[in-house]
Amino acid sequence: MDTFRARLDSARAWWSAAIEESQEGRWVPDAVERQVMADIGAATNALHGGRLAPFTEDSWHVRIGRIANWAGVLRLAARAGGWELQPVVGHSPTCPAGMAELLSGIYAVGEQGEIWMKQLLKGELPPEDEMAKAEGFLTGPGSIEDLELFFYD
């Protein structure tokens, strides 16, 4: 079942698989992959001013927009690099994991932001705890925001 919890757990498993492959030396991101990661970081700058998630003092529109922006950026990144985004809920990442798995894992959370934005435009708010978890996955220490720090080579 594609619940937020399943989406977040799967997202963590997929991006963790890619990070582990890199840290174990089985996947060494090439120059293009590293540039794509840097570009993703630049395009998804959360503009939080160093505040930690959850960003409850910001409007729902801003909070959800921050998350939803990741989806578009990741679709562009995948197209630019020729990687295919894959559904992660109910699936295991391929082995060895690499850039496609990394992007797919993160995309699952960004895609949730797009779902929430459509709901928000109809007047429906997402659960606060789910928003906070999505924000924490994408921003702050040890999050996707620190993506480049996870690669040691």
Walk me through the structure.
The protein is mainly alpha-helical. Helices cover 58% and strands 0% of the residues. It contains 5 helices and no strands. The chain has helices at 4-23, 31-43, 60-81, 99-121, 128-138. The protein is globular, with a radius of gyration of 15 Å. The mean pLDDT is 91.
Structural class: mainly alpha
DSSP strand (E) fraction? under 5%
Distance between the termini: 37 Å
User: What is the N-to-C succession of helices and strands?
Assistant: HHHHH
Number of helices: 5
Low-confidence stretches: none
Give me the Rg, rounded. 15 Å
Quote the average pLDDT.
91
Number of distinct beta strands = 0
- What would the principal axes of the Cα set say about the shape? globular
Largest sheet, in brief, is:
none
What is the subunit arrangement here?
A: single chain
Fraction in helix: 55-70%
Topology readout:
Layout: H1 4-23, H2 31-43, H3 60-81, H4 99-121, H5 128-138
Helix pairs in contact: 1-4, 1-5, 2-3, 3-4, 3-5
Key structural traits:
single chain, 5 helices, 153 residues, mainly alpha
Structure described in brief:
This protein has 153 residues and is mostly helical. It contains five helices and no strands.
